[in-house]
Specification:
By secondary structure, this protein is α/β, with parallel strands linked by helices. The protein has one domain: Zn peptidases (Aminopeptidase), CATH 3.40.630.10. The protein has seven helices and eight strands, in the order H-H-E-E-E-H-E-H-E-E-H-E-H-E-H. It has helices spanning 3-22, 30-46, 95-114, 140-150, 201-214, 236-240, 272-286; strands spanning 52-58, 61-70, 78-85, 120-126, 154-162, 192-197, 219-224, 246-250. Strands 1-2-4-3-5-8-6-7 form an eight-stranded mixed sheet, with helices on both faces. Strand 1 (52-58) and strand 2 form a beta hairpin. Helix 1 (3-22) crosses helix 3, helix 1 packs across helix 7 and helix 5 crosses helix 7. It is globular.
Length: 289
Amino acid sequence: MDKSEETKQNLINTVNMLSRDIGSRSYTETKNLEKAAVFIEEQFRSYGCVPERQSFEINGNIYQNIFSEVKGTDTSDEIIVIGAHYDTVYGTPGADDNASGIAGVLELSRLFSKKPAQHTINFVAFTLEEPPFFRTRHMGSYIFAESLKRKNIKVKGMIALEMIGYFSNKKGAQYYPVPMFRWFYPKIGNFIAFVGNFHSRSFTNRFAEIFRNESSMHFESLTGVSLVPGIDFSDHLSFWRFDYPAFMITDTAFYRNPNYHDPGDTADTLDYEKMAELVIGIYNTVRQI
């Protein structure tokens, strides 16, 4: 099995486990969240990583961020954070949102554990990204970013994998938050997007520059302000709040995927060839960033 086929199969296995075998993972479904956390820990461990839990209490329930660190080869005290959320909206299997992102994080941890990058990387599975905690200080990513700031840890940049598996070649199936965007961006949803703010522009642009040379995958890059709907709709927002550079890699979510926050968000709707291509492109890019 070559590298891309192995990556593809690992992505399929993770998405199936989270979305099909475990299923809905909302904040009310603490048993399923625990099953997901245990699975993520086991995957980290199987790749030679040492997983840790960051526990916190909200409304009488204990929630967990799961993370693991792969040490870099240089002496820099800056780290890179690559994260995704493993919770879902109630009643949805969450294959794209966001088992796809977790699958990417886990596969990247496997690749980097075999051949580390220059920078130390924290791989994180966040909880409580979805409503009612969305955009609040109760998000798992906020808790994690706050802990980094409190420890004075320097973050070169954070990459949020937010829905990376849905692609469409149907013309007109790609939508945008602002109508004029259709004049500048594709009408066909067969690309991936890098989305950041102006504070993170240097980190995002550097990533895009390297990715362009390392992957033939079609991507679009957008730097904007939070007034543009969707630009801060994921865990990278939590890192912005602590002045860390961060951007989101996304298939554009509800601007493309008709199964967003719906029971139809199942594993069979995703394109694992493109997911594998993206993950390998991210791996080759982060090694040089």
